[in-house]
Amino acid sequence: MSLFRHGQWASFILSVVVGRPVRGRTPRELGAWRLRGSRVADEEEEIREFLAGARIDPHAYSDDYTDDLKRLRSEGKVKGRVHIVTRPLSDYLRYEFMYYEPHVLAGEDIRILDVTDRENPLPDVQDFWMFDRSTVVLMNYEPDGTQVNREVFEGDPEPFREAQRVALAESVPFSEYVKKLDL
């Protein structure tokens, strides 16, 4: 089981159903969390274009992901993430942040936990998905960040619920965070 050690970034992705209880569970009990510590290989060309000065118009940008965010919002669902970062932001993080504004405009709740000048409250959390606050799927990676596999975690999900709680409590909204940056 590898611990999160894939550079200076990670992101928790949280999807929470907002609405009526389902099978006796309240909306706060439903959701999917993901802690991700790797980047997608097919982004390399886009990153090169970004570094050369290419930018997107966040108000005009649309893709399958933003369309899905809008659909989820229209269904009364909320999706969000907490992204753990340190400054200075890497080129990859600056590239990734470029897409956060259209994601926020489409309905995603993106939050940032900057641990540059403080201790990381989640230093050894392995990459994971958590579904309905009870089923955890661990994401396993090579040292270079290449995903090896995913495995269902058979133990107590409480440490992952605690990671979720800490991440939300210790983070700030993306739009508040980027006001302080020169991106």
Polypeptide structure, described:
With 183 residues, the protein is an alpha+beta fold. 28% of the residues lie in helices and 27% in strands. The protein contains five helices and eight strands, in the order ββααβαββββαβα. The chain has helices at residues 44-51, 64-74, 91-105, 158-170, 174-178, and strands at residues 9-17, 32-36, 77-85, 108-114, 128-131, 135-141, 147-153, 172-173. The chain has an eight-stranded mixed beta sheet with strand order 7-6-5-2-1-3-4-8, with helices on both faces.
Low-confidence stretches: 1-31
What is the helix tally? 5
> For the report, how would you describe the main beta sheet?
8 strands, mixed
Number of strands: 8
Average pLDDT, all residues? 77
Coarse structural class: alpha+beta
* SSE ordering: EEHHEHEEEEHEH
Cα distance, first to last residue? 35 Å
Q: Report the helical percentage.
A: 25-40%
Strand content: 25-35%
| General form | globular
